[in-house]
Amino acid sequence: MVQPLALFLYEKLLPSGQLVNRFQDKGYRVQSIGDPTTLVDHAEREKPLVVLADLESRQYNVALAIGELKKNAGTAHIPVIAFASAAKASLQEDARTAGATLVVNDTAILAHLDQFLDQALQVD
C-alpha cells in the first residue's frame, strides 16, 4: 500500500519539525521544501495529499506560492493548511486570500492537528 504524501514548506524548525514527526507517526511519507518558488513544480511532480505551509519566512512570500499552487490546474485541488503566529495576522489573511484551505495559529496546530487535517481533507 502506498503511503500518502504530506508536503511541508517551512524554514523554522518549530513547530514544523514536530509536525513532520506527527505526520510520519500517522503513516504519511513526508517531504520538506524550503523554497516556496519550487512549490508548484514539486507538488505537480510528487502529487501530495496535503500541503502544510509555515507562512513566516525571512526571504519569501509564502502566500504568493500558495496562490500559484491554487491557480495551477494540476495542483489547485491540493488542500493547504497554512499556519503562522497570532501576531502575524496579516500573513494569515494573505494566505486566506491566496486560497489556503485552512489557516491556523502555529500554537494551535499541534494540539488540534487531527481536527485540522480532517477539515482540510473533507470532500464536499
Plain-language structure description:
This protein has 124 residues and is an alpha/beta fold. 41% of the residues lie in helices and 19% in strands. The protein contains six helices and five strands, in the order E-H-E-H-E-H-E-H-E-H-H. A five-stranded parallel β-sheet has the order 2-1-3-4-5, with helices on both faces. Helix 1 (16-25) links the parallel strand 1 (5-9) and strand 2. The longest helix has 10 residues, at 16-25. The radius of gyration is 13 Å and the shape is globular. The two termini are 26 Å apart.
What's the helix and strand layout?
Elements: E1 5-9, H1 16-25, E2 29-33, H2 39-46, E3 50-54, H3 62-71, E4 80-84, H4 89-98, E5 102-105, H5 106-109, H6 113-121
Parallel strand pairs: 1-2, 1-3, 3-4, 4-5
Helix pairs in contact: 3-4
Shape: globular
**Span between N and C termini?**
26 Å
- How many individual β-strands? 5
Elements, N to C (H/E):
EHEHEHEHEHH
Proportion in helices = 40-55%
Sheet with the most strands: spatial strand order: 2-1-3-4-5
Compute the number of helices: 6
- Category by helix and strand content: alpha/beta
Note the main sheet. Answer: 5 strands, parallel
- pLDDT averaged over residues: 93
Uncertain regions spanning at least 5 consecutive residues: none
Strand content: 15-25%
Radius of gyration: 13 Å
Kindly list the characteristics that best describe this protein.
alpha/beta, 6 helices, 5-stranded parallel sheet, 124 residues, 19% strand, 5 strands
